């Protein structure tokens, strides 16, 4: 039975202990996470227990509770007076970092900012090529090195160049690394420390790009990256497919990190500002039992 269909529903449900458990199961199966699912369910329980409520009302309660969790951390990338502002983009392999940088560069350039890109994923020739294509497409300068070059050295040169060219923003790509690979995580720490040698307060932003399709594994990703390099904000990609976007609610509830944007497709316009109520409404419309 589709309890929470997106089309109008005139049915009512009795909100009792049995239904409370079913609601928790629906949330957990949508990657919301058990603690957050329990928190949301209990809030609705306090409003509706023992009552027969319309499914549309239940959906509205869910949207309200999810929006309450997400609203405080829905924030655009902050812009600082100190230039160039260094934005280091990190994440595991395949999360969408390179594409995200291309889209961010485009959006900030269209907003009137001067933008430079540092192709810091020196392990993959394809990443350097992909960023070069984005840089040409968006018409912004790119700093790159040969495949296999030291990524910290590339980051250092990029910051120096951005300062010399008086850029507003420098986006630095990094190689994808699994959170359980200690040596690669230490290398990322080195990149951050080298950037600080050129500009003490940089990087002003360390943005963690997360792939929504990886589900609960995202929690350990955030934990480790936050511990190693003090992540300042999150962008979640691949929310256009069958991904259960509930994981974003779990991340928001647990870590309270700013969510800057979400990726819902491959085109430039598909990196969107994060709207909590719109996201919650779309998510509830997708719920099934």
Outline:
With 289 residues, the protein is of the alpha/beta class.
Q: Which bin fits the share of residues in helices? A: 40-55%
* Low-pLDDT regions: none
- Cα distance, first to last residue? 6 Å
Annotation field: number of helices: 10
* CATH homology superfamily name of the largest domain: P-loop containing nucleotide triphosphate hydrolases
Structure description:
It is built from 10 helices and 10 strands. It is α/β, with parallel strands linked by helices. The chain folds into 2 domains: 12-73, Four Helix Bundle (Hemerythrin (Met), subunit A), CATH 1.20.120; 85-273, 3-Layer(aba) Sandwich (Rossmann fold). The protein has an 8-stranded mixed sheet with strand order 5-4-6-3-7-8-9-10, sandwiched between helices. Strand 7, helix 8 (217-229) and strand 8 form a beta-alpha-beta unit. Helix 6 (151-164) packs parallel to helix 7 (182-198). The mean pLDDT is 89.
Itemize the secondary structure elements and their pairings.
Layout: E1 12-14, H1 17-29, H2 34-48, E2 52-54, H3 55-70, E3 85-90, H4 97-110, E4 115-118, H5 125-138, E5 142-143, H6 151-164, E6 169-172, H7 182-198, E7 205-211, H8 217-229, E8 233-237, H9 246-255, E9 259-263, E10 271-273, H10 276-286
Parallel strand pairs: 3-6, 3-7, 4-5, 4-6, 7-8, 8-9
Antiparallel strand pairs: 1-2, 9-10
Which key terms come to mind for this protein?
289 residues, alpha/beta, Four Helix Bundle (Hemerythrin (Met), subunit A), eight-stranded mixed sheet, two-stranded antiparallel sheet, 10 strands
């Amino acid at each position: 039975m589709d309890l929470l269909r997106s089309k109008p529903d005139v049915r009512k449900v009795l909100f009792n202990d049995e239904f409370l458990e079913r609601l928790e199961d629906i949330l957990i199966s949508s990657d919301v996470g058990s603690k957050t699912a329990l928190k949301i369910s209990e809030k609705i329980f306090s409003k509706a227990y023992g009552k027969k409520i319309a499914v549309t009302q239940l959906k509205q309660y869910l949207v309200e509770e999810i929006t309450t969790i997400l609203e405080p951390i829905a924030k655009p990338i902050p812009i600082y007076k100190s230039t160039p502002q260094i934005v280091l983009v990190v994440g595991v392999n395949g999360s969408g970092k390179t594409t995200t940088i291309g889209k961010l560069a485009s959006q900030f350039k269209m907003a009137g900012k001067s933008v430079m890109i540092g192709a810091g994923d020196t392990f993959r020739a394809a990443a350097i090529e992909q960023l070069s294509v984005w840089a040409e497409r968006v018409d912004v300068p790119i700093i790159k090195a040969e495949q296999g070059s030291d990524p910290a050295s590339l980051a250092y040169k990029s910051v120096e160049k951005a300062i010399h060219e008086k850029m507003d923003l420098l986006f630095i790509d990094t190689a994808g690394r699994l959170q359980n690979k200690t040596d690669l995580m230490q290398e990322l720490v080195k990149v951050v420390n080298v950037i600080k040698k050129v500009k003490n307060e940089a990087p002003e932003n360390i943005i963690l790009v997360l792939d929504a399709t990886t589900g609960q594994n995202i929690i350990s990703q955030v934990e480790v990256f936050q511990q190693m390099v003090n992540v300042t904000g999150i962008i979640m990609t691949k929310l256009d497919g069958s991904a259960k976007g509930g994981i974003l609610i779990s991340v928001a509830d647990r870590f309270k990190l700013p969510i800057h944007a979400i990726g819902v497709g491959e085109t430039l316009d598909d990196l969107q500002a994060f709207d909590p109520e719109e996201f919650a409404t779309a998510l509830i419309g997708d719920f099934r039992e």
